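Practice set, problem 2.
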Amino acid sequence: MILKKITIALLFSVSIFAQKQARIVQDFNKNWNFKLGDFPEAINANFNASDWRALQLPHDWSIEGAFDKDAKTKQAQGFLPAGKGWYRKNFTIPASWKSKTVSIEFDGVFKNSEVFINGKSLGVRPNGYISFGYDLTQYLNFGKSNTIAVKVDNDSQPNSRWYTGSGIYRNVRLVASEKLHVGKWGTFVTTPEVSAEKSKIHLEVTIDNDYASAKEFKLVTSIVNAENKEVANFTSTEKIGAKTSEKKIHDLVLNQPKLWSTVNPYLYKVITKVYEKSKLVDNYETPLGFRYFNFDSEKGFSLNGIPTKLYGVCLHHDNGALGAVENIHAIRRKLTLMKEMGANAIRMSHNPHSLEMMQLCDEMGFIVQDEAFDVWKKKKVTNDYHKDWDAWHKRDLEDFVKRDRNHPSVVMWSIGNEIREQFDSTGIAITRELAKIVKSLDTTRPVTSALTENVIEKNFIYQSGALDILGFNYKHEDYKDFPAKFKGQKILASESVSALETRGHYDQSDVIKAWPTKHGAPFDGNADWTVSAYDQVKSYWGATHEENWKTIKSQDFMAGTFIWTGFDYIGEPDPYPYPARSSYFGIVDLAGLPKDVYYMYQSEWSKKTVLHILPHWNWTKDQEINVWAYYNNADEVELFLNGKSLGKKSKQNDDLHISWKVKFEPGTLKAVSRKNGKVVLEKEIRTAGQASKIDLKAEKNSIKNDTYDLVYVTVSMLDKDGNLVPNAMDLINFEVTGGGKLVGVDNGYQANLESFKANSCKLFNGKCVVTIQSNGKKENIQLKATTAGLEASTIKVKVN
């Protein structure tokens, strides 16, 4: 069901008619108890849970654990614990709800969940990424106490190639509606004809009648614009049989719609209302965006008739120090960083992401490749989804499409990533089956799959003929041959790059390296498990950022690229073993601090004027340093050291940066970009002195006291003149008082084994980040940071 959380004030805010809202949607995240272990008797009302921990969902118990070299989750999941856990909650249902249908909705539980209400099992759901729900009505004690218990079993390991988290890690809602109501994920809105002059709207509404008698009702559809004004409506009188579900159709026309795009993501809403006689018995909201798009085998992708390269990034579902905990504020921060970089597309790797992620992609203007599976019947790790494939893949795929098919941001469905069935004939039948399932529910979007094999004879997924778009992972050097090899096919780079960087670390080298050169080969890595932040180190299967982008940029037939990855993520710390526990692939580090290559993309993908120089300017006397500059909107850049010009340089041919070799001397390194002789931008980096002050910068000035809102505070070590001390590794202690609580610390260092939940954090290359969450108190938050030998620093954040 496409519902928005009441706590973020997005829930059914529009009332087309002057009547009370009929559908009741309650945040069901609060007042749970939790305990690690297996407690089958916890389903009973008289179970003693006095020693269980009280908490608010969403919750991920893995992120709270200690890193362990011998953890069953292994390196792929960052050496964090998994296991089994139980959640339990007592709650009262109003007696007035006795005539209603009451259900519970889980946005995601990792994994193998079983839900019990008053001792009765409602069902199991193995897939940890799928949203699901249960009808509670027949089991409830109305006007009395009820007990819900949720068993979560993430003990069979390893079961993933990346960090999954463990627990009820996404939101939970309680929904009450009249017996006559819109069904779960019960609307499907399409726009069969779209133009700036006129658009047609086709709405399919599934109505559930839980009464023992047939019903007659009025179905009202209202189209509401972003200013909450009704711009179109349609009413019909309908009939429905007893104890049944039936689909009803509404067709509308809207003149001069505002089109949804990545630049102006204008959103409408469809308000569906059900009236029995004159009584409003249900109201349901569906997102709507008017847009049309096309993939072309020669010209790539276009949106609303405008050629548009997909500037995409792949994202995993974890939120850094929060682990797998889903929080709309964490996602908004992540997507804002990507938007400011110039990205316009997101690939949901490699599984369904949260409802909030989909909503924000709609609102912020991202084109989405929505991905269902990382494995089919053939496993990648011992206990992954292949064990559940036969019993669950059809149901999971159907629910995935039903939940997400109304989002205008979604422009393609991916049925798999690097699937093993590519390499044998079983891939033909499975691909056709999955594509058929998707098309049975949505014919408005193409189906793709992320392929690794570009030899036609070896690729049985391609041979199925069921894909509308060919997505290829890596092998950028082969792209030029694709138009001849895959004649008439629409093609994109579904995954690319896999370059390696550690923020703020710079090895002086002129050589592009692969670490390692092939699987299992030794390589000359760094003793401290870092990788240079110059774009010079890549995985053996990948490319540097510049190598890949030069290729994509020059080939019109490529619809675009999805960089692996937008952010570092927990797990898969190639190329290093323990203690490395998170990835090196991100353009932004795990703490949310951009690496230098971020500005290469910003100079190429965005309209922002960019001048970025690297590295820092704290080295040894006369050491020869590579100075790089990313820039745009200028003809040249001139570099100065302590006021002396080191020469002007311009990008030649397909260059994406310029560079100088400079013998270090302390002082000021200054870059000046010019266009037609006029200064465009100036940037300076100064040699920092001794650490003098802890600087605290909050990403926003206020938060809500709703127990969900977050504020991220960047902690930097400065010298007496305000320069970042680039090699500072001081331990900073934190104290949070007032209306907030500390929920995460991170410094972006991939081999940091300190807890994400500690009250302290070592700076890494001068910086770390503290995450504070509202605790519900109406008091302003104060963060105090202390370290040995320096005065404490404080920052206050207003609580509304």
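Problem 2, part (b): a different protein.
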Amino acid sequence: MSLPKLFLLLWLLGSRFTTLAASPTAAPRTSPITRIDPTFWWVGMKNPKLQLLVHGPGIAGSQVELATYEGVTLEGFRKLESPNYLLVNLTISPTAKPGKLKLLLKGTRKVAYEYELRQRTTPGDKTKVQGISSADLIYLLMPDRFANGDPTNDVVKGNRAPGVARDSMYARHGGDLKGIEQHFDYLKDLGVTAIWPTPVVDNNMPKAGYHGYALTDYYAVDPHYGTNEDYVRFVQRAHQQGLKVIHDVVLNHIGSYHYLWLDQPAKDWFHQWPTFTRGNYRNGTVNDPHVAAQDRKLFSTTWFDTTMPDPAQENPLVATYLIQNFLWWVEYTGVDGYRVDTYTYSDPGFLMQWGKAILEEYPQLGMFGETWMQEAEGVAQQAFWTRNVFPPINGFKSNLPGAIDFILRQALLESLTKPSGFAEGTAKLYYAVQGDWMYEDASRNVIFLDNHDVDRVFSVLGEDVRKQKLALAWLLTERGIPQLYYGTEVLMKNFSRPDGLLREDFPGGFPGDSKNAFTAAGRTPAQQDMHAYVRKLANYRKTHPVLQTGQLTHFVPEDGVYTYFRHDAQGHTVLVMLNCNPTAKSVPLQRFAERLQGYTSAQDVLTDAVVTDLQTASVPAYTALVWELR
């Protein structure tokens, strides 16, 4: 053996070859590498470029080489401000095969690191990434507050908040992925087709980590919920049960205990202020033609909250890091859709780049964003953040398919809490729907009554069961993708300040609960009545495509009554009439002749009663009529 070959053999024998598992773990102490993001990747992706962020103490002093791997090319590497990072750029050609490529790092110490390339499966697997559409009914839940199916993960040793305390609204309560899975049958029976858990990624924060919006690891599931592998199985089992899964993603911020903040790759990876500066929360500064530069800066470059650092998405290296992460979660798990948290707060240029990259790889992925609007901002401002009819404004042209429709929700609630007039009450609802012309496709918007950030609808409506039923009838017959917040079907209530009040545990989801609202026997008569109402209408919607994709024709409200029809080319028609008044109304139907023509009777969807008189409708106070015309 020649001397050079002997030295090479000794070098290889002295090096440790490590492989990152699906859940990111620290490399052995003998290696200078603590982690690489992404934790692994795939061959067969449309974009052949891959940026690896390599982290380890003093690793910037290393030179990087790539052992020969057919179809993979090392394009270069670069140092960052921190001595603990290296960026490694690879190109993976379409001819590359799955396997483990070896990165060779040469510095004060030498190491070979095995990086796994897997075979991409998503394009050929029809059980993955099925998309979200108006045919779905989404059930939004908070994993920590829904059900505890695995008590072994209640306490996570070494975590900054290791245990549970159900008597504290800011502590963990113990809910997890297994708990959700154990209630798939409950959700299916209710008429749900898609589950939206609030973020399941790691939130290793000392306080309020339960909500999931202060992530501390982009590539790990929160251990209080399970492992990465548990999440993959969760999605698979949901699909086997006919349920889709929506992954809640946070683009705009991270938690202040994220390793990228504690050991920053470079100062320009985050927006930095001398002291904490709260933003103005005014998304209108992005497209305001008269905006003051300082106001725009206070919206787009400040932290969302004191413990939520703001990544500088205009930095191309940061943008690539984030884009790769959200491609990774789709390919790894096969989730069906993305709900994008605080969508409007991200850098507009980055949003266009991010959306384009995600939808190019996964055109079938459902995607909708949190575009939280106040009533004064109106439909136009909400539509600006989705695919719309507007030309580019300040260089921004949204590629987000749909919005969470806050404007429509506010209009519905005003219809039930304020008297109607020419521009008030039910008129607000009419005009909110009339504004659909500004969207490319308003049916991709998610409509809702309440969620984890706003007052529960039962409380907003003064705990009036009649009003809640009317609101739910609207939710399940209006255009768009309906979203139900966990517990609304069993009259859970409370207001949003403090937030923990509207994020209470679902009764029956935890050991020792005195009541179990998952079962008919465990519900009060009022809860059972509301549950049965939702179940009947949701399952009717599930089996009647006219309420999913049918055209909507509505009539200008009169005297606090709003009437609309859902109809399709096959002749199916459903009439919906909302009486938003505290008194009963007798409504002549002649005004709606253009949509009633050819029909002689109807069946009341909610009561099953046959309606033979299509001349007049008698509608009790705060009641919705839902008639299938015949």
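Answer key, part (b): The radius of gyration is 27 Å. Confidence is low (pLDDT under 50) at residues 1-29.
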